[in-house]
Design a protein that fits this description.
Helices cover about 10% and strands about 50% of the residues. The chain is mainly beta and about 180 residues long. It has a single domain, classed as Immunoglobulin-like, CATH 2.60.40. Strand 8 and strand 9 form a beta hairpin. The longest helix is centred in the N-terminal third of the chain and has 18 residues.
Length: about 180
């Protein structure tokens, strides 16, 4: 049985990993911006954990009404170090991006499970997340990080860790739609 401290560290690592990976949206490699998002994540064992995550959102700079574009979100390592090894395939990220400006709504991006094990004592790094957005209105469409989550399967069970921006983040990318 794991100690309370070890369970808290595991939950923190997975949570911030989820926040990092779980962050934004964006697609077509024509245009990319990086923003820092401070996420608050609820972990089942240690409560609210917060940390800054560098998020790069890639989307086309321009598109036309009716076009479906790919949004890609890539994150840097989280500020959390894994307290135990997290097996390959054990952490799967997803996120919801806020669509505003000429078009409003949300876009969901998802990522594959981590391809390699995350060694104990290493920063958590999540794979890129991809989604699609169909553009319905002419004008500037802005993409902003929204909620994120990760599903982590560990020796302690499977946990869903929801993360929300601690304060309203800025726009991460814009698409000029004609």
């Amino acid at each position: 049985m794991l100690s309370s401290t070890l369970r808290k560290r595991l939950a923190t690592a997975v949570t911030l990993g989820a926040a990092a990976g779980a962050v934004l949206l964006v697609g077509d490699p024509a245009h990319a911006d990086t923003v820092t998002v401070n996420y608050a994540c609820e972990t089942p064992l240690s409560g609210t954990q917060t940390g800054d995550v560098e998020v790069t959102v890639t989307a086309p700079a321009t598109a036309t009404v009716g076009e479906t574009v790919e949004i890609t979100v890539t994150t840097g390592p989280t500020p959390v170090v894994a307290p135990i090894e997290l097996a390959a395939g054990s952490v799967t990220p997803s996120a919801e991006g806020i669509v505003s400006g000429a078009q409003t709504g949300t876009v969901i991006v998802t990522g594959p499970p981590n391809a390699e094990a995350i060694p104990a004592g290493s920063p958590v790094q999540l794979p890129p997340m991809i989604g699609q957005l169909t553009l319905t209105t002419a004008g500037q469409v802005d993409l902003t990080p929204g909620t994120a989550s990760a599903v982590a399967s560990t020796i302690f069970g499977t946990f869903t860790i929801p993360c929300t921006p601690a304060s309203p983040p800025g726009v991460a990318a814009s698409i000029q739609v004609s």
